[in-house]
Amino acid sequence: MKNTAIFILFVLAVTGFLYSISGKKYPQMPANADHMGITDTAICLGCHDAGKVYPRKETHPPKFECLKCHKQKRKKT
Ligand code: HEC
Ligand code: HEC
Questions:
Q1: 53, 11 in Cβ contact below 8 A?
Q2: Mean pLDDT per 10-residue section of the chain, whose length is 77 residues
Q3: CB contact set of 37 (below 8 Å; sequence gap of 6+)
Protein backbone atom coordinates (compact mmCIF):
# COMPACT_ATOMS: atom_id res chain seq x y z
CA MET A 1 0.00 0.00 0.00
CA LYS A 2 2.77 2.40 0.95
CA ASN A 3 4.68 1.53 -2.22
CA THR A 4 1.63 2.30 -4.34
CA ALA A 5 1.36 5.77 -2.80
CA ILE A 6 5.04 6.44 -3.45
CA PHE A 7 4.66 5.20 -7.02
CA ILE A 8 1.71 7.51 -7.66
CA LEU A 9 3.63 10.48 -6.25
CA PHE A 10 6.56 9.60 -8.48
CA VAL A 11 4.37 9.46 -11.59
CA LEU A 12 2.81 12.81 -10.69
CA ALA A 13 6.23 14.36 -10.19
CA VAL A 14 7.48 13.11 -13.57
CA THR A 15 4.32 14.25 -15.35
CA GLY A 16 4.56 17.66 -13.73
CA PHE A 17 8.19 17.98 -14.73
CA LEU A 18 7.49 17.04 -18.34
CA TYR A 19 4.62 19.48 -18.44
CA SER A 20 6.80 22.24 -17.03
CA ILE A 21 9.35 21.83 -19.83
CA SER A 22 6.81 21.29 -22.59
CA GLY A 23 6.56 24.97 -23.45
CA LYS A 24 2.88 25.20 -22.62
CA LYS A 25 3.37 27.46 -19.64
CA TYR A 26 3.47 30.48 -21.89
CA PRO A 27 0.32 31.40 -23.75
CA GLN A 28 0.55 30.13 -27.30
CA MET A 29 -0.11 32.26 -30.31
CA PRO A 30 -3.47 31.56 -31.88
CA ALA A 31 -3.26 29.70 -35.19
CA ASN A 32 -4.80 32.49 -37.23
CA ALA A 33 -3.72 34.66 -40.14
CA ASP A 34 -2.36 37.33 -37.78
CA HIS A 35 0.16 34.91 -36.35
CA MET A 36 1.07 32.36 -39.00
CA GLY A 37 4.63 32.51 -40.21
CA ILE A 38 5.77 35.67 -38.45
CA THR A 39 9.40 35.59 -37.37
CA ASP A 40 10.06 39.28 -36.77
CA THR A 41 9.50 40.67 -33.29
CA ALA A 42 8.90 44.14 -34.71
CA ILE A 43 5.80 42.82 -36.44
CA CYS A 44 4.50 41.33 -33.18
CA LEU A 45 4.91 44.68 -31.49
CA GLY A 46 2.89 46.34 -34.22
CA CYS A 47 -0.10 44.76 -32.51
CA HIS A 48 1.12 43.89 -29.03
CA ASP A 49 2.85 47.11 -27.97
CA ALA A 50 1.21 49.57 -25.57
CA GLY A 51 -1.73 51.34 -27.13
CA LYS A 52 -2.05 48.86 -30.02
CA VAL A 53 -4.73 46.25 -30.77
CA TYR A 54 -3.76 43.78 -28.04
CA PRO A 55 -1.16 45.25 -25.69
CA ARG A 56 0.80 43.02 -23.37
CA LYS A 57 0.03 43.31 -19.66
CA GLU A 58 2.20 45.47 -17.46
CA THR A 59 3.33 42.30 -15.72
CA HIS A 60 4.59 40.86 -18.99
CA PRO A 61 8.25 39.83 -18.81
CA PRO A 62 10.30 42.63 -20.36
CA LYS A 63 11.79 40.47 -23.06
CA PHE A 64 11.77 40.96 -26.76
CA GLU A 65 12.52 37.62 -28.38
CA CYS A 66 8.83 36.77 -28.41
CA LEU A 67 9.26 33.43 -30.13
CA LYS A 68 11.53 32.02 -27.43
CA CYS A 69 8.50 31.78 -25.20
CA HIS A 70 5.46 32.02 -27.42
CA LYS A 71 5.08 29.09 -29.76
CA GLN A 72 2.65 28.74 -32.58
CA LYS A 73 -0.40 26.76 -31.64
CA ARG A 74 -0.78 23.86 -34.06
CA LYS A 75 -3.58 24.21 -36.47
CA LYS A 76 -6.13 21.45 -36.11
CA THR A 77 -6.98 20.14 -39.51
C1 HEC B 1 -2.10 41.87 -36.88
C2 HEC B 1 -1.98 42.02 -35.44
C3 HEC B 1 -1.14 40.97 -34.67
C4 HEC B 1 0.16 40.57 -34.94
C5 HEC B 1 1.10 40.99 -36.08
C6 HEC B 1 0.50 39.65 -33.87
N7 HEC B 1 -0.58 39.48 -33.03
FE8 HEC B 1 -0.64 38.28 -31.39
N9 HEC B 1 -2.65 38.64 -31.17
C10 HEC B 1 -3.36 39.60 -31.87
C11 HEC B 1 -4.72 39.62 -31.36
C12 HEC B 1 -5.84 40.56 -31.86
C13 HEC B 1 -4.79 38.62 -30.35
C14 HEC B 1 -5.97 38.23 -29.48
C15 HEC B 1 -7.11 37.67 -30.29
C16 HEC B 1 -7.11 36.19 -30.40
O17 HEC B 1 -6.94 35.48 -29.38
O18 HEC B 1 -7.30 35.68 -31.54
C19 HEC B 1 -3.48 38.03 -30.25
C20 HEC B 1 -3.13 37.03 -29.36
C21 HEC B 1 -1.81 36.64 -29.07
C22 HEC B 1 -1.40 35.75 -28.01
C23 HEC B 1 -2.32 35.02 -27.06
C24 HEC B 1 -2.59 35.96 -25.91
C25 HEC B 1 -3.52 35.35 -24.90
O26 HEC B 1 -4.11 36.14 -24.15
O27 HEC B 1 -3.63 34.11 -24.83
C28 HEC B 1 -0.05 35.66 -28.04
C29 HEC B 1 0.86 34.86 -27.11
C30 HEC B 1 0.41 36.49 -29.13
N31 HEC B 1 -0.69 37.06 -29.73
C32 HEC B 1 1.73 36.66 -29.49
C33 HEC B 1 2.16 37.24 -30.68
C34 HEC B 1 3.51 37.17 -31.18
C35 HEC B 1 4.69 36.52 -30.45
C36 HEC B 1 3.52 37.81 -32.39
C37 HEC B 1 4.69 37.91 -33.37
C38 HEC B 1 5.24 36.61 -33.82
C39 HEC B 1 2.16 38.30 -32.64
N40 HEC B 1 1.38 37.92 -31.58
C41 HEC B 1 1.75 39.03 -33.75
C42 HEC B 1 -2.86 40.40 -32.89
C43 HEC B 1 -1.61 40.28 -33.47
C1 HEC C 1 10.52 35.25 -21.18
C2 HEC C 1 9.37 34.69 -21.88
C3 HEC C 1 8.52 35.64 -22.74
C4 HEC C 1 8.94 36.40 -23.81
C5 HEC C 1 10.34 36.54 -24.38
C6 HEC C 1 7.75 37.05 -24.31
N7 HEC C 1 6.66 36.69 -23.57
FE8 HEC C 1 4.71 37.22 -23.91
N9 HEC C 1 4.11 36.22 -22.21
C10 HEC C 1 4.95 35.51 -21.37
C11 HEC C 1 4.18 35.05 -20.22
C12 HEC C 1 4.74 34.24 -19.05
C13 HEC C 1 2.87 35.53 -20.40
C14 HEC C 1 1.68 35.35 -19.47
C15 HEC C 1 1.70 36.56 -18.54
C16 HEC C 1 0.56 36.59 -17.59
O17 HEC C 1 -0.41 35.83 -17.75
O18 HEC C 1 0.64 37.43 -16.68
C19 HEC C 1 2.84 36.23 -21.68
C20 HEC C 1 1.70 36.82 -22.24
C21 HEC C 1 1.66 37.47 -23.47
C22 HEC C 1 0.47 38.01 -24.10
C23 HEC C 1 -0.93 37.93 -23.55
C24 HEC C 1 -1.27 39.21 -22.82
C25 HEC C 1 -0.52 39.32 -21.53
O26 HEC C 1 0.26 40.28 -21.36
O27 HEC C 1 -0.69 38.44 -20.66
C28 HEC C 1 0.86 38.58 -25.27
C29 HEC C 1 -0.03 39.28 -26.29
C30 HEC C 1 2.28 38.40 -25.38
N31 HEC C 1 2.75 37.73 -24.26
C32 HEC C 1 3.05 38.87 -26.44
C33 HEC C 1 4.45 38.86 -26.49
C34 HEC C 1 5.25 39.55 -27.48
C35 HEC C 1 4.66 40.35 -28.63
C36 HEC C 1 6.55 39.31 -27.18
C37 HEC C 1 7.80 39.87 -27.90
C38 HEC C 1 7.93 41.33 -27.85
C39 HEC C 1 6.59 38.45 -26.01
N40 HEC C 1 5.30 38.23 -25.60
C41 HEC C 1 7.75 37.93 -25.42
C42 HEC C 1 6.30 35.25 -21.60
C43 HEC C 1 7.10 35.84 -22.58
A1: no
A2: 87 79 75 88 92 92 86 74
A3: none
